[in-house]
Amino acid sequence: MFDSYRENTLRYHSERCFNCRRCTEVCPHGVFAAGDRFVECVRPEACMECGACALNCPVQAIEVESGVGCARAMIGAALRVKDMDSGVCGCGGDESSCCGGGQEEPSCCGDR
Amino acid sequence: MTADSRITATHRLDHFLARWGVDRMGHRVEPGLYSLGSPTPASPVFVSANYTLSFDALRSALTGHDGYILVLDTHGINVWCAAGKGTFGTDEVVGRIAATGLSSVVEHRTIILPQLGAAGVSAHEVLRRSGFRVTFGPVRARDLPAFLEAGAGTPEMRRVLFPFADRIVLAPMELVHAALPTAVAAVLLYLLAGPVAALGTLTAVLAGTVLFPALLPFIPTRDFSTKGLLLGGIVALPFAASLSGDPVLPGWANALLALAPLLLMPAVTAYLALNFTGSTPFTSRTGVKREIFRYVPVMAAMAVGGVVLILLLAAARMTGAI
Fold first, then answer.
1. Are A4 and B287 in contact (CB < 8 Å)?
2. pLDDT by residue (tens digit) across B139-162?
3. CB under 8 Å, gap of 24 or more: what pairs does A16-25 form?
């Protein structure tokens, strides 16, 4: 109940993994953990779909529809009758934005 | 270009203004290669964004260290947001390495990137295209000295956290975003329903923009919308009590007067709470989209219901029905 975050678009194909462990390094939520022969996906529900793992996997063992989880940007896109998924966040444009004004190191839009 | 690790009053003022959204896109550092301290060709190279808060966090964390800082052109956006947009990205890293002649400045072939830049930078692509090996440093610049000493990151350094201090510094920006519509709504409600209604507007907005970030992990449920509805409901209670206490009015009128803030205030607070998702480092797009479809219609219905009630009660007062 009241948890919209249990499912996401993260898909992991362990049979392609050659255990370079780059994903365990880049994931800020500890979704992947080192294993003996291949990396294990231990916290899939913690994934925020930032896409760092998929982008840094040399053998495409990880798939994720990456995007910014920012309601302000998505509602803004919907109101302008645009695709909600086109939603790059508004930060950087002239209009105001998510991205919380740039957190220290994270930020936002997670500025996000 | 050269940089040092000092943070002066001028820098702090710049940080303060950035937090309040003053000249939002103007807090920039010139992109390029900076020397920090007295680096040699063997010194490490750190990559940063050309946003003053990012650059200052990095250089101040490296007090007493010698090295190079490669500042990418992220258009004045922090590392995490810029990585999400792709401006803190593979192309920019490769291009900036070439433009600054980094390979003739240092003898090694390693660059250290902030971990949160990984959403925009593909390490193996950078290696293939530039010959430079990418090491992802810790999430937080302040962990860099320990990272450099150990030569690797610990699991704690690799996790993004969102403690109270990180949440509350975002409140000013949330307030600035909400300021204009809040002022308009407060004036309208003052004219229609009096000072208590205007105060209720301000309270709902403050709850959504300041209290919500402050209390985020302590409010029950995972969805931001339900957290906002709960928080908004709680702050609405005193308004419901004070508005409905008129002994001259019939019971049904008092009940409707109590219902108006209970409908309107949680809707406003929940909407602002939902909008805070973009400022957190843990909400997925899939989840946020689901929240929007689930709860925005509820919030809209509550808000419309509350407004209709206020208009009806105002009309009833004017016509002398109550």
1. yes
2. 999 999 999 999 888 999 999 999
3. A16/A59, A16/A60, A16/A61, A17/A59, A17/A61, A18/A59, A20/A58, A22/A53, A22/A56, A22/A57, A22/A58, A22/B123, A23/A53, A23/A56, A23/A57, A23/A62, A24/B158, A25/B115, A25/B118, A25/B136, A25/B153, A25/B158
ipTM for the predicted complex comes to: 0.87
Q: Specify the pLDDT at position A91.
A: 55
Residue A12 has pLDDT above 70, yes or no: yes
Chain A neighbors of B18, CB-CB under 8 A: 101-102
Residue A83 lies in domain: 71-101
CATH 3.40.50.11600 residue spans of chain B: 2-160
For range B275-279, the mean pLDDT: 93
State residue A86's pLDDT score.
61
Does the CB of B93 have a partner CB in chain A at under 8 Å?
no
User: Looking at the 3D structure of chain A, how many domains does it have?
Assistant: 2
> Chain A neighbours among B 37-76 (CB < 8 Å)?
51, 53-54, 57-58, 75-76
CATH of B2-160 given 3.30.420.40, 3.40.50.12780, 3.10.300.10, 3.40.50.11600: 3.40.50.11600
Tokens of B239: 């308004």
